[in-house]
Amino acid sequence: MTWYEEAVFYHIYPLGLTGAPKQNNYGSPVCRLKELKDWIGHIKNIGCNAIYIGPLFQSVGHGYETTDYRLLDSRLGENKDLTEFVADCHNEGIKVILDGVFNHTGRDFFAFLDIKKNRENSVYKDWYCNVNFYGNTEYNDGFSYENWGGYNLLVKLNQKNPQVKEYIADVVRFWVKEFDIDGIRLDAADVLDFSYMQMLRQVAEEVKPDFWLMGEVIHGDYNKWANEGTLHSVTNYQLHKALYSGHNDHNYFEIAHTVKRLNDMFKNGNVKLYNFVDNHDVERIYTKLQNKDHFVPVHILLYTLPGIPSLYYGSEFGIEGRKEKGSDDSLRPRLELKEWIKNETYVGLITRLGKLRNQYKAFAYGSFEELCLTNRQYAFVRRWKGQSLYTAVNNDENPANLTLPVEKSGKYQGLLSGEIVEAEGERLFVTLPACQGEVWIELGQQEGNPVLSLTERKPEKNQKDDEEKQASDSSVREKEESKEISDTEEKEETALEGKKAEEKTAQKTEGTKGGSEWVEIDHSKRYEEMSIEELQAVIYEKMRKNGPVTERMKQDIIENIYHNSLVTWAKSF
Predict the structure, then answer these.
(1) Euclidean distance between CA atoms 207 and 437, whole angstroms
(2) What is the DSSP secondary-structure string of 472-523?
(3) pLDDT of 514-548, one tens digit each?
(4) How far apart (Å, rounded) are the C-alpha atoms in residues 57 and 364?
(5) Which pLDDT score is estimated for 552?
(6) Residues 377, 392: contact at Cβ < 8 Å?
(7) Whose CB among 95, 248, 413, 516 lies 3.0–4.6 Å from 50's, allowing a Cys bridge?
(8) Distances (CA, A) of 378 to 34, 188, 417, 498
(9) C-beta neighbour count of 322 within 10 angstroms
């Protein structure tokens, strides 16, 4: 057991949060990092016990074009400010990891400046990849070089160079000695040389017990990077995508399929992936969700599924953030805590989930078993040391009734609501409100007290003054009568659509069980051009190539009747 397996992270982009200038003039230090001291108490109060913060070191712009790895960015302050920040976090029981931008440097880095000055005679000419003194760039240096992401502002380091390896190893040692950090998030880990990462793993084991290395990886088999010899964990972009699109499409099959695939990838359970719903590079979850009420089940899943949950600063307030004209600025805003702390729309939910995560080790170490899966409801159990935690979520805009298999009859308590439900014959009959979720535990196994009901603080779309919220009794009655009529019509329409969908599914299920074949596939079509039936046949075909297909797996395919979800599923193989 390690601290990071039990961590709930709070992710900070410091240049944005503190409102630092976009460009660095390398002037006198401005101690903006001190502003974050007020955030430490808030971070602890909402149940986070670890912080990922970065980038922090001297750079010319957004922070990922490093000028000096050993100097705090002058827009944030001096080195002593970072030392004090980490110490303050540790005093509150909060671990701290920093951004390690070790794939590339900025053009103001000393080694690159030496190449500009001495060209072929520079002792650092082999510190970068493919330096060509017969080439040129838009900067008119009189030579070219390999960059990262097509940006010549970011000069790619030669990670096979022993001198570069030793230099970066010394940087890590310096950060631990100077700032007492607890780990590093490796930027662009999916393009780092594997021997380079193995070197960093050796340094991690040298500098501090349980020093954590987590890498930014977007696509691929995560176990190539996260294993015994390389990194401890990587960013879980696969689950990130599934969590928002699975709700937007009302399709929990996508989320469940992703969870199964990731669990199969790490069957020994030794690797815990870094889970998130938004960060400094992607749009805010509140912006991406078509139904804002899905914020609740999304975060219940974030905190209860296997992995290490992370919350991006400000998202606990339900703030918006959209990429605009290729800029990430709106994703990295300046925030004044005193202005936002009054907004309790979602802070209560996040705090309750943080408490549960801290109280129950089953969320960190427990086994995972799926119990119920439909397009709109999803339930599973996490078991650890005789303790079982049952989680269920509902993405439907109407309440849902579920029957969950439990280990024994008796009374079970909802840890989010405090409500008690009695199981009958090892079956727990529960009702989930619209766009909500719950976690149950057998009465007597609880640790601590359950917190206030989620429904007691129903999220409001707009905050208004009390005067604006008041209405006359007659007006209220008129609205209620109108709503009853509207609700009745909507329920009738929903019921009709649901009946049609059930009939369609039943017909297909009967046909499959009866031995009829799947529809013929036209492989000349793009997945986007295929019908639902063709996509289902494609997925079945791909599953068969991977091994035996069970009846449950067939049923998963048949019940998924959402075109976008099926396209995503087909492409995932």
Answers:
(1) 42
(2) -HHHHHHHHHHHHHHHHHHHHHHHHHHHHHHHHHHHHHHHHHTTPPPPPP-T
(3) 334 689 898 888 888 898 888 889 888 887 876 66
(4) 32
(5) 61
(6) yes
(7) 95
(8) 43, 33, 18, 18
(9) 10
- Cβ–Cβ under 8 Å, residues 40 and 94: yes
CA–CA distance from 366 to each of 11, 381, 382 (Å)? 25, 9, 5
Type of residue numbered 144: S
Tokens of 278: 């938004």
Q: Is the dihedral of CA 89, 90, 95, 96 positive or negative?
A: positive
State how far the Cα of 42 lies from the Cα of 209, in Å rounded to an integer: 27
Q: Among residues 115, 94, 110, 101, which one has the least CA distance to residue 42?
A: 94
In the block, tokens 């001495």 appear at 118
pTM for the model stands at 0.80
| Residue-range domains of the chain with CATH | 4-102+159-364 (3.20.20.80), 104-158 (3.90.400.10), 517-573 (no CATH)
pLDDT, tens digit (0-9, with 9 covering 90-100), for 198-221? 999 999 999 999 999 999 999 999
Rg (CA), the chain: 26
How many other CB atoms are there within 10 angstroms of residue 96's CB atom? 21
